[in-house]
Write a structure and sequence with these properties.
With about 270 residues, the chain is α/β, with parallel strands linked by helices. It has 8 helices and 8 strands. The protein has a domain of about 180 residues: Arginase, Chain A (3-Layer(aba) Sandwich), CATH 3.40.800. The protein binds zinc ion.
Length: about 270
């Protein structure tokens, strides 16, 4: 029995493929100011992108919160299991590749999709930090383990090599790109030494690999909470725009939908969830 859901409204053709909601910014009655991490980074990214006159409130897509009913549509109680959403609800999507470039080894999606042949996971991470989850590791089909203090040149070379390798091995209907910025030099948890320019370049390499093959890509910004992180994410999005890798949807550019938030007929080839 299909459950009622409002999550699949269509977005105007003029929208940029950028998804955001102000509720993303974590605030606890001012306590966030005492926290060394920048929990309000998403709002700042949006602020910078407005300052550069790339976006307005009108041309980005507002994220909708999934209701209890929406969650029942996925046939699972797990709120974050969005990928299963994609498989069940979006026509033309039956396989996905996760490119996980957050500094940490992934273990959420890995455990969710262990033994699920629809999902190919490539994960590049600092081998010495949390979670070192050997069980979840079995789900990673292309594993790239990095050492403390890995720098730009080695890192970017590996990103290019292994993105191409992963996408040549399996051609998915969609790419979900975890663009964690905790690889940034000075991150208290990541333990890697990637420069701001290196992060901008990394995102470009991943989007280019997707574009070359005509595969829709969804980027999520995830971890990394230094004070300068928001500026770097904004610069990266602007760079993707300048390189022609994201922008307003153009008719006939792509065929598959890219996100649970885009309804039938809305089909940007690249989507950025901030
Ligand atoms: Zn992380």
């Amino acid at each position: 029995i299909p459950h009622h859901t409002e999550l699949y409204g269509s977005t105007p053709k003029t929208s940029l493929p950028i998804v955001y909601h102000s509720d993303y910014n974590i605030t606890f009655m001012g306590l966030e100011k005492l926290h060394p991490f920048d929990a309000g980074k998403w709002g700042k990214v949006i602020h910078f992108l407005k300052e550069e006159q790339f976006i307005t409130d009108e041309n980005i897509v507002e994220a909708r919160e999934a209701s209890e009913q929406d969650l029942l549509v996925t046939h699972t109680k797990r709120y974050l299991n969005r990928l299963k959403f994609l498989f069940e609800r979006v026509e033309g999507i039956s396989t996905a590749t996760i490119i996980d470039l957050d500094a940490h080894q992934g273990n959420g999606h890995e455990r969710d999709f262990l033994d699920d042949q629809r999902v190919f996971i490539m994960d590049m991470y600092n081998r010495h930090i949390y979670p070192r989850d050997a069980y979840a590791k079995r789900a990673i089909k292309r594993r790239v383990e990095l050492d403390w203090g890995t720098e730009d040149s080695e890192y970017l070379q590996k990103v290019e090599l292994h993105c191409d390798g992963a996408l040549n091995e399996v051609r998915p209907d969609v790419i979900v790109y975890n663009a964690g910025t905790d690889i940034l030099d000075g991150d208290p948890l990541g333990g890697l030494s990637i420069s701001p320019h290196g992060i901008v370049k990394r995102d470009e390499l991943v989007f280019r690999a997707a574009r070359r093959r005509g595969i829709p890509i969804l980027m999520v910004t995830s971890g990394g909470y230094q004070k300068k992180t928001a500026r770097i994410i904004a610069d990266s999005i602007l760079n993707l725009h300048h390189q022609g890798l994201i922008g307003p949807e153009r008719e006939g550019l792509s065929s598959a939908a890219t996100s649970p938030t885009s309804g039938p007929g809305s089909s940007g080839s690249a989507l950025t969830a901030i």
